[in-house]
Predict the structure.
Amino acid sequence: MSTLTATDVRVVLPGGTVAVDGVSLQVASGGWLAVLGPNGAGKSTLLRALAGLIPYQGTVTFDPGPAGRGRRELARILAYLPQRPVLPPELAVRDYVLLGRTPYLGYLGVPGAGDRELVEGVLERLELGPLARRRLGTLSGGERQRAALARALAQRPRALLLDEPTTALDLGHQQQVLELVDGLRREDGLTVVTTLHDLTAAAQYAERLVLLDRGRTAADGTPAEVLTAERVAAVYRAIVSVSTDILGVPAVTPVRPGTAGIHADAMSTLRDHRPPANP
Ligand code: ADP
Ligand code: MG
């Protein structure tokens, strides 16, 4: 499969804003890295640079890399799902997902039986079968997001770059999409990079987190290393409490500023009344 390595990536936008400033990361085959950070931190810009869609300084490599140069070759190893995909409103869901096969089609661009079969499988996995004939313009936000993901998966990439793939989804579909991606990385060794707003979901699914703050890496490590209440407070300017589940995975819960004191008292009360550990 594919290892994605980015070294010292810097993106200067037209107008001079430095949106990404010296970010390095590495994700091996079967790995899942989540890029976190507040609005405007540079997450989407970093993903676009990794996807080769915008100019950047530094290096981004896939090992093994594309068989040749050009978009088509890159699209066979890498699928990128933008934060706000533009979907042609008149196109039917199935035909749109079939577009994911474009990098594999021959000169005439006609999908074969194998392409169609693969697309049916993806539609099914994302519960899009009943919507397959619907025009994209008629879908709800969450359905659109799943259709866009389906197209990315139909590409059969070795690496998936997903920009906030769960933002428009309800809780059940969030879980469905995250579990699906997790299955793909475990079973097929897909290399996964996602940006995620939900810090708890990021901690549950990604093995490694990169927390961006104004374009720079504020923290990089395991969920437990990165998601401390102090760091979340500093980077997001939010008051949170971080609890740890039995597997050691942190869960981040917002705390209303006015109640932070009460919360702290409650926490210390809980601690004081916890039964003593077994000797
Ligand atoms: P995030 O995805 O973390 O919310 P972005 O990567 O979208 O952040 O944006 C990072 C910064 O770059 C923001 O300040 C944003 O306003 C700015 N930015 C993004 N795209 C452009 C653009 N095309 N032109 C100018 N500024 C941009
Ligand atoms: Mg973004």
Observations:
- The pocket of adenosine-5'-diphosphate (ligand 1) is lined by residues 13, 15, 17, 19, 37, 39-45 (CB under 6 Å).
- The first helix runs from residue 43 to 50.
